[in-house]
Each structure stands twice: as C-alpha cells, then as structure tokens.
Amino acid sequence: MSQHLNRSRAGYGRVLLPGVFLCVLSAEVSTAQLDDAYLFHDSHFHLTNYVQKGTDIRDYLAIMGDKIGRSTLFGIPLQQTWSHENSGDFAPTYYLQSDAPLYYYSFTDAYIAMAYRSLTPEQQQRLDPMITGFNPADMYGVDHIRRVLETFPGVFTGIGEFTIHKEFVSSKVAGEIASLADPALDRILDFAAEVGLVVILHSDIDMPFAKVNEEPVFLSQMKLLLRRHPKATIIWAHTGLGRVVHPVQVQAVAGSAERDANHLEIISGMIEDPTLRHVYFDISWDEVAKYAVSSPEVERRTAAAFNKYSDRFLFGTDNVAPQDQATQLRVFHMWDPVFARLTPAASRAIRKGNYERLFDAARQRVRAWEKANVK
Ligand SMILES: [Zn+2]
Fold first, then answer.
1. Do 98 and 25 belong together in one domain?
2. What percentage of residues in the chain have a pLDDT greater than 70?
3. Is the domain of 92 the same as that of 184?
4. How much is the average pLDDT of 15-35?
5. pTM here?
6. How many angstroms does the Cα of residue 46 sit away from the middle of ligand 1?
7. Is residue 88 domain-resident?
C-alpha cells in the first residue's frame, strides 16, 4: 500500500508512520480507492526479450505508474543465437528473424533477482518475480529452481512463463524437445506444489493451422499432466492459443452423446471439471485478444464465459520490454468490448482480484518454505 502514497505524494511515504498515513489518506483518498484506481495487475510480463535485452526496472515501474498496480516479472529463458553464418551482420532479436537455434539461458533468473533487489521494499511490493531459466526436458531442471530459491531467498513468487509446445519456437530449441509426458516436467510441478510456487505454463493446445473440427492434438495430454498435479497452482498461458494456433470448433462424432464444442466450451468444460479446479487461464497476448474481439458474437460468448467463471481467468499483457505506457496498455484496451459486457465483480476479479489471491498466497507459502529450507 505505502508505495501508492510515495508515488502520489512524493517524499511523504518514507518519513510518516503507517498510522499517520491512514488518517492522511482517509482525509483525501481511501487506500481501496487508490488500489481500485489501477486498471489491472499484469499476470504475464516479460522485462527482457529473446536476446536478453529489455526495459530498465525503474522505467518499468514508471510505465506501471498509476495504471498498473502489480506485475509479474520475468525474462525469456531462451536466447536467440546470432549466427554470423546464418544472418551475417544482421543481429536477430526475435525467433522469427533467424533460422539459428534457441538455447536455454539460465542467467535470466539472476538478472531478474538482482534488478528486483535493487528496488526499495515499497517498489518490490508491486512485483512478483518468476523463475524461468530451467530446461523442462531435463530431469535436473527442478534442481535449478531450488538453487535459485536458495541463492535468492525473499525474491521469487513462482515459475514461468516456461514453454513446452510453442509454434515456431519448440522446434528451434537446441537439445531434447520438451513434452507434456516428460517425467522431468512432473518433477518440476511436484516441487512447485511442495513450495507453493505459482506456475505459468505456455503450451499450445493444438498444432498450427489445425483442422478446425478436430480435437486439439495436445488437449488430452495437457489434461493428464494437470490432473497429475492437483496441489500445484497452474496458470495455462493464453488459454493455449497462439498466433497460428486457432480456436477450434470440434464437431461431435455422429451418434455419440457428445455435442459440438468450440474453444470457449472446451475451456469452460475444464473449469467445471473437479479434477482441474487448481487450473487457471491467463488471457494475455494480443494474438489471443484478436480472437476474442473477432466479432460481436464471439465478444458476447467470451464475456458470458468470463462472467460465469470470473474466478479462473487472469488478465495479462504478455508484453516484452515495452518502452512506454501507451504500448504497455494497448493490449488491455483491445479487450474493451469484452470488459464492457462484464459485471463489475467479474471485471475486477479478472483484472486484479484473482492475481491478488493467487500471488499473495504464493508469496506467503514460498517465504515459509525458504524459512524452513534455506540455510
Ligand atoms: Zn509470454
């Protein structure tokens, strides 16, 4: 709470005792009003890009300003190789800009931790750093996560965004290909459940350009994985969609009891499934927003699902190293037509409430685990 005061009343925050704050506040603006003034908390934010370059963390706090209350904080655990043989003097900064491979870049976690540690306690309160620099196809991957918690206690709230199936990316990663059935991934999710780390998992629900009337190829494997880890809090990034991983319209098998289902109905079915009540969905990335606002009918159906299951969706931007606030807010306003159809309670839950509930609980659990396990 205090950082709001610091920002809105420069120079006050640090000298006054909490009690005095509150009476000053009640005179002018209540804390709830200040908190409620924020548009959203960003459940999916990359401070650095595919070549580990990004926004200075203080510039990011300035970009958050009085619009974004809290934010996850992670890099991208994959480095795009600049192969001179491949692209000469052209330095690629994105995975679509070169055929050269991607490789796991674990130092991203130390970079994020040190940036976070350079902030004041008030500033740190607004951020939830996440561990990403591990290889999910390596049985030793989980040891990296434990090592980061032991090296930087008091910093991280969760793991991810990390990726299993991702269009244009997975096939470029050097080494073993990650899979939803890999026991290395089960070790990672077991540990996340034990420690209380929130998990943000990117895995496409389907292959690119899939036939729209067939069951998404990775859906059943994903459900099996999620059911194997009921004690972990898992956020499925982008509800499994991507740039060319489209929402499907599955036709029921003739004569079967099932009925046609579209992407929203598949997700709603997962939400209603008692074996998946530990699973949440982030709606981040403008490539996802484009589907939801593709027609008034889709907007209406999306809003109906959000109103009905408002405790299971989290807004996020999926922005990478933005340079200004307008850029950071652009994807949020793509959702305006949908948010305009939500009840105030559903809108607040998806924009902020679910973030607060999941990430506050994780902070407490991870700190407790560190207290008990980090010498
Ligand atoms: Zn992302």
1. no
2. 87
3. yes
4. 52
5. 0.90
6. 7
7. yes
